[in-house]
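Complex record, four chains
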Amino acid sequence: MTRLSDVARAAGVHPGTASRALNPDTRHRVSAETVKRVLVAAESLGYQPNSVARALRTRRSRMVAILIPDLTNPLFPPIVRGVEEALAVKGYSALLVSTDNDEDKEARLFAELRGRQCDGFVVATARRKHPLLARAAADGVPMVLVNRVLDSRHTPSVTADEAAGVHAVVRHLTGLGHRRIAHLAGPQELSTGLIRRRTFLDSCEQAGLDPRNTPVIDATGFSEAAGTAAMDKLLATYRGPERPTAVFAANDLLALGALDALAAFGLRCPEDMSVAGFNDMPFLTRMTPPLTTVHVPQQEIGAEAARMLLKCIDQPGPPRSLLLGCALVERASTGPVPQG
Amino acid sequence: MTRLSDVARAAGVHPGTASRALNPDTRHRVSAETVKRVLVAAESLGYQPNSVARALRTRRSRMVAILIPDLTNPLFPPIVRGVEEALAVKGYSALLVSTDNDEDKEARLFAELRGRQCDGFVVATARRKHPLLARAAADGVPMVLVNRVLDSRHTPSVTADEAAGVHAVVRHLTGLGHRRIAHLAGPQELSTGLIRRRTFLDSCEQAGLDPRNTPVIDATGFSEAAGTAAMDKLLATYRGPERPTAVFAANDLLALGALDALAAFGLRCPEDMSVAGFNDMPFLTRMTPPLTTVHVPQQEIGAEAARMLLKCIDQPGPPRSLLLGCALVERASTGPVPQG
DNA sequence: GTGAAAGCGCTAACAT
DNA sequence: ATGTTAGCGCTTTCAC
C-alpha cells in the first residue's frame, strides 16, 4: 500500500505538509500550489489513507456499531439500511452485530466493539432493564437506542410514536363496531411490549369499552409461534359470546401466528374475527388475508438514529428522544363486527 | 481506556511481557506465574486491548467487509447473518455496506474499505464483467464471492448449485404434464440470470420439449415490478393455445410480480397457469398461492463464504468454488396442466 | 523468561 | 507556509 510519505516524496514536500494538504479542514494552511501538487501526487499514486493509523492517532475510528437481535427478523434490515446510509454520507462505516438477545454474547461483543474503538453505538437490542447499556451510557459511551428504550429515559433514542399507532388501531376497530377486543401482548421486559399493552388498555377505556371485554394474553416473544400459542389460549379461554371479535397483536409476526391458530380453529379472518398487527413488515399485502397494521418508518428511524449519534459524538449534549409518526394501514384482516 | 502498560505496571512487568502473556500464541514464552499475574491484573482492570493499535502493528484488522446490493431485499439478510456468525467465532467483525448496484458508489466504498485495512471481502454484488472486482482479485485482495460469480472463474466463491435447482424445477413441471413452459429470465449480466436461463433451456430440451414451446422473456431486474412487466409481455405475446401452461421465474420476486400480472389478466394460479420461483425467500408459505420454489441455503452460503475467506487470509491458495445443494420446495403455485 | 527499543502510518503541537 | 518532532497503543526483534 502506498503511504502518505510516498505521496509527500512525490510532491516534494514533508509528510506533515502532505497531511495538511489532504485534509480539507487544514488545507487552508497550505499554499494553493502545494495543495495541488500533493493532490495530484496522491491521485496518481492511488493513495488511500490508512484509517487504522489515523484512528490510532486521532482516537476516532469513524466506525459505528449496530447491535440488533437478529437480522433475519424482517423488522431489522430496513433499520440497518437506514443507519448505514446515513453513516456513509458522513464517511462513517457500520459494524454489524447480531446478539440473539443473548446477554453474554451481547456483553462479549460490546466489549469487543469498544476495543475496536467504535465511536458510537446504534442499539436495537435494549431491554427495559439493561445493566450493560445503562452502565455504558453512564460511562459516556455515545449511544442511540432505536425502537426499544430503557426504563430510565436518560439515553437518546429514536422510536416510532407507538402510542399514536396503537390509538389508531383501537379507533379503527371500535369504528368498525368492535366492543370485545383482545390484545396479544409482546414481552413486557421490552418497552415496545409494555407501551403497546398500556396504550391498548388506555385507548379501549377511553373508547368506553368495558375492561372485562378487553382481555390481554401474554405472548412469550415477538414470533409467529408465540402468536399462535397466544391465540390458542385466547380461543380456549373466551368461548361463545365471550369471544372477542377483534384482536390487536403487538406486532406483525404475532398477528401472522395468530391467523394460523384462527384458521386451525375453523374461524375466518376477518369474517369471524378481525386481526391487526404492528410494524408493517414487508410483503404483508401478499399474505392471506393482507394484514391491517401500523406502518413504522424503520429505515427513517435508522437514519435519524445515525444522524443523532453522529451529533452526540461530535458535541455531546443532553439526551434527545425522537418520536417518528406512524400510520394505520387498513387492509383486509379487519372488518365489521360479525352479525348475530 | 486502560492500556496494556497499565496492566503491565499493575502486574509488575514490562509491557512486552504483558503482551506475550495476554496472547495465547506467545504465552508459552512466559513463566506460568507471570502469566497468572498479568491475567489477574488485566481482569481486575477490565483491560480491553486496543484493536486499532494492534491492527496498525500487525497489519491485520480482523475485520471483513460484506458488500451487498441492498439489505432490504429479503435474499440478503440470511447471508449477512451467516457471514457475521462465522466471523464472530474467529474473533472477526463484519463491516456491512450496501451498494445499490451503483458502480461509482461501489468503487468509492471499496476503496474506503481497503483504506480501513479490511482483511478480506465477502462480495454479493458481482456482475459477470466486473473490472473493479477482477482488478482487486488480481491484486491479491482476499475475496470470496457469494451467489453471483465472475465470468473469469478465478475468484473463490460459494453459491447454490443452481443448475441442480433449475433441473428440479423443470422436472417438476414436466412431471405435472406441462409441455409449454416459459422462463422469466433475470438480468443476463449477472451469473445467476445467465445460469438459470441456460439451464432452463438445456433442461427443457433434455425433457424433449420443443424449443418453440419454451419461450424466454427477459426481465429488467430481479424485482416484483420487472416480474409483472415480463409476465404482461408473455401474456400479450402468447395467446390462445400458444400460451404456456407454466412459468419458471428466475427468482421469487419475479414470480410474485408475475402472479400479479396473472391475476390482473383474469387468470388463476395454478389452475390456469403454474408459476415457480427460485431462492425460497421468507414467508412464501403465507402468500397466495404459496409459491413453489427452490430452497437456497443462504445463511449457510454466508457462513461457508466467511470460513473460506478466513482460510484465504491465513494461507492463500488456489481459488476454490463451493456449490451448496438446493432443493425443490413444492407448494401450491404449481399444479397439473389445465385440461381442454 | 524478561526487558529494551523500534516502528506500524498518521496527525498535531511546536518551531522556523 | 512548511518542516520537525513526538506519540497514539501495540507487537516483536533483539539483547541479556
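Note: The two ends of chain B are 78 Å apart (CA to CA).
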